[in-house]
Amino acid sequence: EREAIVLKLQDVEMAYGAIRAIKGVSLEVRQGEVVAIIGSNGAGKTTLLKGIVGLERVAGGRILIDGKDCTDVPPHKRVALGLALSPEGRGVFADQSVQDNLLLGGYSQRKDRRKVEELVEREFARFPRLKERRQQMAGTLSGGEQQMLAISRALMSEPRLLLLDEPSLGLAPMVVADIFRSIRALRDSGLTIVLVEQMANKALAEADRAYVLETGRVTLQGAGRDLLKHPDVRAAYLGKH
Length: 241
Ligand code: ATP
Prior knowledge:
Layout: E1 5-16, E2 19-30, E3 34-38, H1 45-53, E4 60-65, E5 68-69, H2 75-80, E6 83-86, H3 98-107, H4 113-126, H5 128-132, H6 143-155, E7 161-165, H7 173-188, E8 192-197, H8 200-206, E9 209-214, E10 217-223, H9 224-229, H10 231-237
Parallel strand pairs: 3-8, 3-9, 6-7, 7-8
Antiparallel strand pairs: 1-2, 1-4, 4-5, 9-10
Helix pairs in contact: 3-4, 3-6
């Protein structure tokens, strides 16, 4: 039996003024899946994630969360429905401590102090590196640590669906491996994940399924493993072999 559909996009269109950034994208994400969205610079990956969480408005089509039309639901309500975004470029508060970044993430969703502190401790157990640096200003963390913090902060809302925008961006290969290990652990804990990546090989190797986005359209979709072997994908995104 197949798992329930957590997220469904039907013919979603998005635009910046006259620029059509997303031109009718349909996709679905089932509970427990890791779904990758790959594509080159400017393909529309970040735009699509913003549409999913409600940070940019959708010009056409529908976004369904658990089968419910949420196309016009504001971002904070989508968080309450179980969505959380770890944004591209991390977006941590540079002049706040690691711990305060997490607390801020927690209090945006709930008021119960004890519960929020419990969630911070859970994150510190997940990422011991962050625990060691709990008092350090986020802006002085390494790139990889900032990425961990961004993911961790997104997890403070206890999402069912985590959307990761280019978690490997600008990181050294060993650090990328660390981040992907963390993503795998989250998947193993049952979390559903949408992974936007330019590092197509890494993303496809992790993903149950994947979509290739080219100038605002899905041009290929399939099992991560199959796309990894697909000649068009290899030629465009994985270098020649
Ligand atoms: P990257 O990997 O480089 O972040 P991407 O696939 O995430 O690329 P988007 O950032 O979603 O792509 O951009 C899609 C298109 O929309 C691009 O042509 C981009 O220039 C345009 N775009 C993105 N944000 C805006 C904006 N705020 N105003 C106008 N155009 C935008």
